[in-house]
């Protein structure tokens, strides 16, 4: 589909509605959440392409408040699961119970768990055993949950935002690479700048609290936006740029940089190229463009790749972080 197709008829009206809604969402969320503009944008992109997001951040950085606020602004149903070591798969998927009818007969009835929602906050996902993590993985990938051999579908849109604490490692179960790869983004939620922290204190320590956010859209419209995002065109040159960016994270690839060859153990798979291209389509529309540019690919490289690229022990010895390696890669790819 070309730029002209996106601007014509009903599709053109949907594009304008898309931009209006995303602007309203930023405004509504901004009344509650101070700063974190890039985090809000990444969460919106994730939702609008039908993906899931992993947020790595310290406690007290408003992760839960951010997701709940966004869900309210979207007009979507929200559920939260606090993951613990004793959490079982049926605690999130639901279970079958036996009920007795008026005639005295007994029947099985499925009681849905908290996973049957639109926006699911999986808090501290790395604190639960692999068996429970696997149940969530099925829901993320297949949009369904299997209980006692019966598959129950989850209505779309379905958006999982999982959080994990980067410091506490005792009693945790690190997510396997196969599950990490299902997340579109890994967002690093850092501390706020000084002025923003002062604003938080001023805004939430008085008896006059901000008004609740209003819903700017609904589930049906979000599904339409997800379909619209897929129609954004990507030129062959930009598509090749995205694929080459991902291939350059593999130390054995001829296009990889010296930094990648020295510090990377494993690079990203083809799923990373698919995800970065889809995310770039949404970002392009949000920034008022009808096509994807290399700027979109560069801007989204870090959140898409940081949980898919594994560093070696040389990186740890030299104090190189994954973001350092990816920034060097983006800089050299952009300059090529």
Offer a concise description of the structure.
The chain is α/β, with parallel strands linked by helices and 336 residues long. Helices cover 49% and strands 16% of the residues. It has two domains: 1-228, Rossmann fold, CATH 3.40.50.300; 232-336, Orthogonal Bundle (Helicase, Ruva Protein, domain 3).
Number of spatially distinct domains: 2
The count of strands amounts to 11
Rg computed from alpha carbons, rounded to a whole number of angstroms: 21 Å
Number of helices: 15
Q: The biggest beta sheet, please?
A: 5 strands, parallel
Q: What is CATH's topology name of the largest domain?
A: Rossmann fold
The CATH top-level class label of the largest domain:
Alpha Beta
Strand content: 15-25%
